[in-house]
Amino acid sequence: MAKLDIKNQAGEKVKQVNLDKTVWTIDPHKPSLYDAIIKDRASLRQGTHKTKDRSEKRGGGAKPWRQKGTGRARAGSSRSPIWVGGGVTFGPTPRDYSKKQNRKERRLALRSALSNVYKEKALVGLDSLEFKAYKTKDMIKMMENLKVTGKVLFLTDELNEEAYYASRNLSNVRMITADSASVLDIVNADYLIVTEPAIKMLEEVLSNAKA
Fold first, then answer.
1. Sheet harboring 13-19: ordered strands across?
2. pTM for this entry
3. Domains of the chain: which residue ranges?
């Protein structure tokens, strides 16, 4: 049975909980994990790139010179792609880069990512996450108490406004609700701090019984 120490914001152990082994201790499934990361990264692309082809360039309506007799190559438009200032051949156009992944594979990928975090001892349990003021120094102090460094991801059942704003000025800290976490969010963090209610939320959705 997988176990996790639950700490308070002072870094003191307050209890120990049992974790669902089908969520936190499975052998990571690399293909679904890879596909999920590719999907999440692709969804971040805006796809707003655009170049103009010859039909969209302004001008070029008149034939530059007569067809024969000049000794030069025939030309029909000054907006031809081979001319300076002409259109672009096969240039990028707006498109949707998003990819799809079926629900079972997405959940398997999430379980694989969480299991990998637990295996690497980068999972920290927190009894609750509540601040009384929008103070970044309080967030820094709490992280020092929990002995976490690098990129830190907080997963909570619901966002505490004070805690959220206290973390917003820290470029290495991200705070989201457990139900909105993606595989990319999890694998991109050095430490994953999960509140006890968020652990239950994840297990309720991702356990094999619900898959």
1. 13-19, 2-7, 123-126, 191-195, 152-156, 173-177
2. 0.83
3. 2-45+100-206, 47-96
